[in-house]
Amino acid sequence: MSTCAFQNIHASQTFTNDDRTIASCVGTLQTEGDLLVRSNGIREVFGASGKGVKVGVIGNGAESLQLSQTLGELGPVTVYDAGTGDEGTAMLEIIHDIAPDAELYFHAYGGNSEYFKQAVSTLANAGCNIICDDLYFFRQPFLEDGDVADHIRDVLKTYPNLIYVTVSGNFASLHYQKPWKSGISIGPDQTLHDFGEGNSAVQLTLVPRDEVIVTLQWDDPWGGAVHDYDLFLTDPSRGEVVATSMNIQNNTAEPFEHLVFRNDGTESRRVSLSIVRNGENETPNILEMFIRNIDARQVDSDVMKDPADSIFGHAALEDVITVGSVGISTPYAISPDSSQGPVTIQIPEASRRWKPDICAPTNVQVSGAGSFPVPFPGTSAAAPHVAGVIAQLIGSFPNFSREEVIQALYTNAFDLGDPGWDPAYGYGLIDAVKSFQALLEANQE
């Protein structure tokens, strides 16, 4: 079939192929991404419905799975741990919309990295061809591979045809990464970091009930930090320190500081965030910091709003497909919070990783089972679109290797941003039709 014929496919049409009725999706809701990534085309023309493919999802929970099934938005799902919440339910619905005949599995991540690793192994051992998660762990290294990344890499070596899909993250809007710069001395062996032009603090405005979370890491070995940093949050108007993170780094600790503060007052509050270095202050560490739980407009300094290099953890692995998010209408712009690359790795040696790999739609329709927000936002909505398309491709071309399927996705994406790979969109918006066409042609050679 020609490319022109593909362009004329509509979701409402019914097609047959080899005297078979092509599978159609059930339920009253359909992610807008089905049309945008053109997965509807290969499903309706070629019956690419994910039949025979097992897709595992790891998320916070799928508590309202039965409600979604009653509404007709999901079929059978093998559940190992339902967890809490319904982000998993929403992710499963998107995959089911795109690949309705795929066998679906779900395992909650359990709230910590150790249980998450068990979930990965359980789904891989169950024979899943694809695993899709929307997880990130701020107590995993930003500047080297941690135990979660190592575990996923080992699982992918054990299962050479397993394809792993994850999110780039939603942290582009409040991210900072710069070398340490010695600023004002505030006491014996204590020096403030200079954020630029002599500014020793980042100003934040917290509205009532805001709970701000700040995480700082630097490029000392994980579990062997030799430089000691602290975080301070102060209220200049009252002349007081309102929150600190003062872990001691003494050659055995993690290069990690984590501060949480809630504004329990009835009025907005201006606070200042500072990084303090204890002891020697000349070695130029790379500092990387994220602020979460508040809007970027509540932070005065643009220096804290650098989207570059805001991907970390197992999303930085070359072995996985890392997915960014775009809007569902033209020009399909990258979401403001979709984490971008490239990724800086410092340990065991300095390198760059070209992430994200590809992007897919966000803010799409799901059932909202369990009072889950609709439309479904973030990269968590984007990643299952990619998993669904891969299920279609594997189901149609089971003899192609993992590398061949992934290469078909990347080389046939709809290019967005700068030509070729770029740090916001990766290779571009996933295109099911062109990817399918490439594998079809390769299969006929």
- What number is the mean pLDDT? 93
Structural class: alpha/beta
Inertia-based shape: globular
In oligomeric terms, what are we looking at? single chain
Given the structure, what is the number of helices?
A: 10
Helix share, percent: 10-25%
Radius of gyration: 23 Å
List the defining traits of the structure above.
445 residues; 7-stranded parallel beta sheet; 6-stranded antiparallel beta sheet; 10 helices; disordered N terminus
Task: Describe the fold and architecture.
There is one protein chain. Helices cover 23% and strands 25% of the residues. It has helices at residues 3-7, 33-36, 39-46, 65-70, 87-98, 113-125, 147-158, 379-396, 402-411, 432-444; strands spanning 16-17, 20-21, 54-59, 77-81, 103-108, 130-133, 163-167, 175-179, 182-187, 190-193, 202-206, 211-218, 228-235, 240-245, 256-262, 269-278, 286-292, 321-326, 343-345, 351-353, 358-361. A 7-stranded parallel β-sheet has the order 4-5-3-6-7-18-21, sandwiched between helices. Strands 9, 10, 11, 13, 14 and 16 form a 6-stranded antiparallel β-sheet that branches. A hairpin with a 4-residue loop joins strand 13 (228-235) and strand 14 (240-245). The two termini are 16 Å apart. 51% of the residues are buried.
